[in-house]
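Input record (one chain):
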Amino acid sequence: MAQQVVGIADCRASRDSSDELVTYALGSCIAVVVYDPVAKVGGMLHFMLPEASGGLGAERPLAMFADTGVPVLIDRVLALGADKRRLIVRAAGGAQVMDPNEVFNIGKRNQLALKKVMWKAGVFVHGEDLGGSVSRTVRLEMAGGRMFIRMPGAPEVEMTSRPARKTA
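The corresponding structure, as predicted from the sequence alone:
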């Protein structure tokens, strides 16, 4: 497999079945993973902030923000042949790791922004592992659209399409 690292404020899409997309150390950031099982096209976004408003986004990568990054991710997979109606969408991250007193609530704000952007895009989130206080690593296998999550001190587990699961 050809591993492609999706960095912070980065977005990648692929239709190569030998590819694997991976992002590391998601704290308050969120990884959004999309996959079309018919076209065998998928992608991953690693965004760090909820929105590009207030002039912050003018000179920043679009993938840095939920409100601009999610549309970029969807556009990229559609350009590779995915169909928006078939997209399986999963998300992980949005933890409260560097703000224990919840002063800024970036993780929670990212979660809310993601839900809003997905609703506006008309895309359903099929599975999520959001919140808590631990970082995560996320991996997408392009061959079959399998998504895996690893947390510190725990084995890697596959995330399937299922109702939301909150992490303590």
